[in-house]
Fold Focal AT domain-containing protein.
Amino acid sequence: MFPLMTFAITSVFQPLPEKDNAYTEFTVPPQKPPRLTPQNLQPTPTANIDRTDDNVYQSVMELVKSVLQLKNDIYQLPPEGYVNVVKNVGLTLRKLIGSVDELLPSLPQSSRTEVMYPI
């Protein structure tokens, strides 16, 4: 019984192969690339547009606010409260889609892009 056991142990533990000299040994750490310093970054100017009667813009802002409200409240709410904040996001999204649908007929056909979803 011992010779069989000895054979099993010696067949599992193979001697380590000799050190392969085909790879490069690193003796010093590689040099870091030079740091690039940003050149006086200035925000690009935005157009000064009057958004007073822009329902799409106002709806987008309301949607952003409702998503931020969801993000801030979700950790403090019990699971039963999730429905109301998610519902609020859905309602503001529905309002945004409605405002886009109202505006779309007044835009020229060339400015429209139809998005097709695969079925």
Q: What stands out?
A: The two ends are 68 Å apart (CA to CA). The CA atoms of residues 66 and 82 lie 13 Å apart.
